[in-house]
Design brief:
heterodimer; A: 164 residues; alpha+beta; Ubiquitin-like (UB roll); 2 domains; 5 strands; B: Aldehyde Oxidoreductase, domain 4; Aldehyde Oxidoreductase, domain 4; 7-stranded mixed sheet; 5-stranded mixed sheet; globular
């Protein structure tokens, strides 16, 4: 049995020690917001936080997690950075197919915690491990800056009435 | 298949001018051809159809379901059923806006639902099938969905007016409420659902004038943004059904090869492995979870019979195309005038590679097969094709195949195929439990149905003023349509997609000959639709060549095009707009910096892209800036329009820079994102999109940016370093300034470093 702390809850899981955290989250615990894209840490769709740091869960053996707190897309909004990033993501409508966006948001939130006002170079360094085949990069860049500064960077979308 | 194949269909005459007039691309033409053949042509309707009652009953039996798209429950919930599927292009938002505009609700008041497979109810009138593709969703549904909203609104108003004994024309509708301003009375849709549901269909409804639009034309937030931002959206790969097991598959890597046998002893020893299943050409390992299945697959010893394609290579395929271009008979797509005997002849050979789709969500299908039912959960662009395939495999009647469509994590044409779904059903019918089959990324690339390779000879004869007096294009390649919908091939065997954006260009070209030399790939090597289809291929060749002509005539590429556009004011305006925005010729550019223009009219839209690049001494290309001028008719949602263009351009630049599928020993060599590269954020330029205000009917969008990207890049590279790229993807070594500089690239690569620009 391995005990994991995921989004503030403890989970005891009976899985092989070398099983990547991604599949424990998705297939055992049932948190499917974290995505499978490549299986070799090339695309970043599987990005989660370990004690606030962005890691690729598709190549992280579950036994290597230890005591560290795991945060996934489902709970990243509980942190100040996560909340800002998610709001900016909505304000400029970053998503298209959306499949990579869990990973994008996790990478961006970790960046914002580390570097509250990231430069273009900071954004490139933190986000270049996350592939988006729909090509949402222009808006990702703007949304991260907007989350950092609170200032509108590009076209803002009109939120549905009654929405947050 | 939604149409019954009939030999008569292929004899239906449709001339090229009519197709161009319709401004459709190959995929949509395909269905119109089928449609005009006398075979059943399905099309959605704004009013109730014979199969509507059953569909509504299966959808919670709401009291008000006036057509296949709108359900209003007594509690006031407004549910909108989406005829085409969401794969990132924003169509669920666009459809919701079209319906809501006329219905009189806000997007915040609605809930969207995936449609079930049903040709009668959900076939796109443009393509005659329930298919999401060809950039046709908005074009095909703009009229009928607004009408569907108006039908519903008319019924709700009629019900309220009857209740109040007032003239319906004195009532107003907004925010899901019918009001009678004269008396101050109001009733929400929920209270009117039941009486409105009992009324007969209105014969005629009035649609809003565009000037009165309250929703269409506004940059509204996508209806799927909130869930996608929270990780709450369910894609096919996220489906979980009770008792479900998880499997992964491996099909014979060699095209058309067969499974000989497997040694599963090591696999069976892995904890969590449940089953090893076989098909004629593939094997699946089933586990308690994906990791067990994956470990089990890795441990499996598989013996394949590679078959006849065992010796196939890219060079061999390319050579065969070159032979076909030289020796085989062509099909003429368009011929006007004669080639003059005199004049300066310019000619060039362009070569395009095979490409994979690599959507972020790897292919997957969840299937539960029992004796009398087959239930499928999958994100697909062709739900009815999947149903037909499953019915054939299981022997069950189509009504016993229940398909639940899902949000799609990227399609790009790959999910216009049902191969992975049919494979999943073949495996699932061997077991008693529901099974979710997930392809690995390696399987996704190696078993892709790739974009075909092309080999085109393009030529022109220039007059003394440098203008082309003759333009010829001999396109050589395999047909997608010929496999995907053979009945839609032209009477002379022409695949209209192959010549799209070559047979007709925006320019004033007096004498033209555009032909196609059909050369199909060997059996087993399937080719398929890839974002931008024919236009992506032809615009690269034609627009690169236009640049060659300009340089050959000693003219500025902008001015050269301008002179050929005097009869096409819509295209000329876009060219001028893009040039103005980027500041064409306004200031001298730094050494090895260049700008390239591409102009085209793909998918019923008009677009001009100018890309600015810097090419390092070592030949590496850095994208500095991109400016797009677009005329797509009415922009339903300006935010979505911008996003589609930006994303489409990135997809096209990505492909031009990096994407090439190569073949060795009859198998695809690439396998994952490390050797099938995609543009990353650090390589992406700013992309400015300038959209012309228009009241013309909407054009297509999803593929426009992709189709126009590669030629602008190639022309910019030429402007930067003087090297004309006639082969994709871009080869860095061709762009290096010197052998010494190139050596540095090779050393850097060997040490895993990126060469700085």
């Amino acid at each position: 049995m391995i005990v994991l702390r995921v989004n503030g809850d403890e989970h005891s899981v009976d899985v092989p020690a070398d099983m990547p955290l991604l599949w424990v989250l998705r297939d055992v615990i049932g948190l499917t917001g974290t995505k499978f894209g490549c299986g070799i840490a090339q695309c970043g769709a599987c990005t989660v936080h370990l004690d606030g740091q962005a890691v690729r869960s598709c190549v992280l053996p579950v036994s290597a997690v230890g005591e560290k707190a795991i945060t996934t897309i489902e709970a990243v909004g509980n942190s100040a950075s996560g909340q800002k990033i998610q709001k900016a993501w909505l304000d400029v409508d970053v998503v298209q197919c959306g499949y990579c966006q869990s990973g994008q948001i996790m990478s961006a939130a970790a960046l914002l915690t580390r570097v509250p006002n990231p430069s273009d170079a900071d954004i490139d360094a933190a986000m270049s491990g996350n592939i988006c085949r729909c090509g949402t990069y222009v808006r990702i860049r703007a949304a991260i800056k907007q989350a950092a500064t609170g200032k509108a960077e590009i076209l803002q979308t009109i939120a549905p009435e009654g929405a947050a | 298949m939604m149409h019954k194949t009939s030999l008569a269909a292929s004899q239906t005459p449709i001339d090229i001018d009519r197709r161009n007039a319709l401004k459709l691309t190959g995929l949509s033409i395909a269905f119109l051809w089928g449609a005009t053949s006398g075979t059943a042509h399905a099309a959605m309707n704004a009013r109730r159809q014979s199969s509507d009652a059953a569909a509504a009953a299966a959808d919670g039996n709401p009291p008000f379901a006036p057509n296949a798209f709108i359900r209003i429950d007594s509690n006031g919930a407004v549910r909108l059923v989406m005829p085409t599927v969401e794969m990132g292009q924003g169509i669920y938002t666009g459809i919701s806006m079209m319906l809501a505009e006329e219905l009189g609700v806000d997007l915040g008041q609605i809930k969207v639902e995936h449609s079930p497979p049903n040709e009668q109810l959900y076939a796109n009138p443009y393509i005659g099938g329930q298919i999401t593709g060809g950039s046709t969703s908005t074009r095909g549904q703009y009229q009928v969905l607004r009408e569907a909203g108006a039908v519903a609104r008319t019924l709700l108003v009629t019900a309220a007016a009857e209740r109040w004994h007032v003239d319906p024309s004195t009532c107003t509708v907004a925010h899901g409420v019918v009001s009678h301003p004269g008396s101050g009375r109001k009733l929400p849709f929920g209270a009117l659902a039941k009486p409105a549901g009992a009324l007969p269909m209105p014969a005629k409804v009035t649609l809003k004038e565009p000037k009165d639009f309250a929703i269409i034309g506004k940059p509204l937030r996508r209806v799927d943004s909130l869930d996608k931002t929270r990780g709450a959206t369910q894609y096919g790969i996220d489906v979980r059904v009770p008792g479900m097991k998880v499997a992964t598959v491996k099909a014979c890597p060699t095209f058309g090869g067969r499974l000989v046998g497997v040694d599963e002893r090591r696999t069976r020893a892995i904890p969590g492995v449940i089953d090893v299943l076989r098909l004629e050409n593939a094997v699946a390992v089933v586990g308690e979870h994906f990791w067990a299945a994956k470990q089990g697959m890795d441990a499996l010893e598989i013996l394949w019979d590679p078959g006849e394609n065992a010796g196939l290579t890219t060079a061999g395929l390319r050579g065969a195309l070159a032979d076909a271009l030289r020796n085989d008979k062509s099909i003429v797509a368009r011929e006007e005038g004669k080639r003059p005997a005199d004049g300066k002849v310019i000619e060039a050979l362009y070569q395009l590679p095979m490409m994979a789709h690599a959507p972020m969500e790897p292919l997957n299908t969840t299937v539960a097969v029992t004796a009398d039912k087959c239930e499928i959960w999958v994100g697909t662009q062709v739900p009815t094709r999947c149903v037909a395939g499953a019915a054939k495999i299981t022997g069950l009647p189509p009504e016993k195949i229940v398909l639940h469509n899902q949000y799609i994590g990227g399609g790009f044409g790959r999910r216009l195929e049902s191969d992975s779904v049919e494979q999943a059903v073949r495996f699932a019918k061997q077991v008693k439990y529901p099974v979710k089959i997930i392809w690995t990324r390696e399987e996704d690339i190696r078993q892709d149905i790739v974009r075909p390779m092309y080999h085109d000879h393009i030529s022109a004869v220039l007059g003394t003023d440098g203008r082309p007096v003759w333009f010829g294009d001999r396109i050589t390649g395999g047909t997608v349509l010929g496999r995907w919908l053979p009945m839609a091939m032209g009477k002379n065997g022409l695949d209209g997609d192959l010549v799209e954006c070559a047979a007709k260009t925006p320019y004033d070209l007096p004498n033209v000959k555009v032909e196609w030399i059909r050369h199909d790939m060997p059996d087993g090597l399937l080719v398929g639709w890839w974002r931008g289809v024919g236009p992506t291929h032809n615009l690269f060749v034609v627009e690169s060549f236009m640049d060659e002509l300009a340089h050959s005539a000693g003219k500025d590429p902008l001015e050269y095009r301008r002179a050929l556009l005097q009869k096409n004011p819509r295209a000329l305006a876009l060219l001028d707009l893009a040039a103005e925005k980027i500041g064409w010729n306004k200031a001298a550019l730094a050494p090895r910096v260049g700008r390239g223009i591409a102009l085209g009219e793909p998918f019923g839209s008009h677009v001009c892209l100018i890309v600015e690049v810097e090419v390092s001494a070592q030949g590496e290309v850095r994208l500095r800036r991109a400016v797009v001028a677009l005329d797509c008719g009415i922009a339903i949602n300006p935010s979505s329009v911008e996003a589609q263009i930006q994303g489409g351009v990135i997809f096209g630049l990505s492909a031009a820079l990096y994407s090439g599928i190569t073949v060795k020993k009859g198998a695809i060599e690439q396998s994952n994102f490390h050797d099938y590269r995609s543009l990353r954020i650090n390589e992406t330029p700013q992309i400015e999109v300038y959209c012309v205000q228009s009241s013309q009917p909407p054009g297509g969008l999803g593929e426009v940016g992709t189709a126009i990207a590669a030629p602008a890049l190639g022309n910019a590279i030429f402007a930067a370093c003087g090297v004309r790229l006639r082969t994709l993807p871009v080869e860095t070594r061709l762009l290096a300034q010197s052998a010494e500089a190139l050596k540095q690239v090779v050393e850097n690569q060997a040490e895993g470093r990126r060469t700085p620009v």
